[in-house]
Amino acid sequence: MITRIHYYLCFVFIITSCNEAVKHSNDIALHTEKHWSYSGETSPEHWEEIEKNSSCGGAFQSPINIIHKDADSLEQSHLKIRYNATTFISKVENNGHSIQFDFELGDSINYNNKTSYLKQIHFHEPSEHKINGVVYPIEMHLVHLDDNGEVTVLGVLGEEGEESQLFEFFESFLPIKEGVSKEINQHVDLSGLLLNEKQYYSYQGSLTTPPCTENVNWVVFKEPIVLSEAEVLKLRNNMPINNYRNEQPLNGRKVGYNY
Fold first, then answer.
1. What is the pLDDT of residues 146-165, one digit of tens each?
2. In terms of residue numbers, what domain contains 233?
3. Residue 68 catalytic?
4. Which of 49, 128, 157, 235 would bridge 136 by S-S if both were Cys, CB 3.0 to 4.6 A apart?
5. Which of 97, 122, 124, 187 is catalytic?
6. Domain shared by 6 and 83, yes or no
């Protein structure tokens, strides 16, 4: 009888120990697997450390502080924007980092004699790019891809003022919880942004979120669009606080000024 009890207690001890070991190993895995964010130990300052296979430590990163007097003036514009009233937004999602609207094939741009198609729009508050050190309340990124996968991003800064019909349309699909997407399948007319009439800066940079891929064509418009304070706040309330990456060094890059 004593022997059987002894074996039983040993068996219980081994099972309990194994369960505790598995639990401990899972706790370690959860502790060591970090995903990037905008705050704390996974904030932009640590992206290079935690995103091992990314380019976040590269020499030609974005965003930057654009100093107007240092930009090279370029009279001839190499950008033609072809936005129309029949392009469809397929869905909106809260990916935990921003509010993103995905587009079906339609709207396009021609930049440096290459045609790229609008894939998605997302937002950062406050702005990621600065002009002469000025931070704007919001920045809208219009992300385009060409047939070879080359990325061109139009950065549109926003300042507070009158209500924007475009942002009223965007925000009519909010609020949306993190990790949730909504089907939209409605067309939107982006031509009202009048981007073909605006002066802009251009430079070679990167995505502003991991994997921070470089060789991204950046076009940042000098003149901000106007939207209301309430519209800014509604977007802010649906995104992480301060979802922007810190300013990156130029490292000898030239910024063009197209007028």
1. 999 999 999 999 999 999 99
2. 44-258
3. no
4. 157
5. 97
6. no
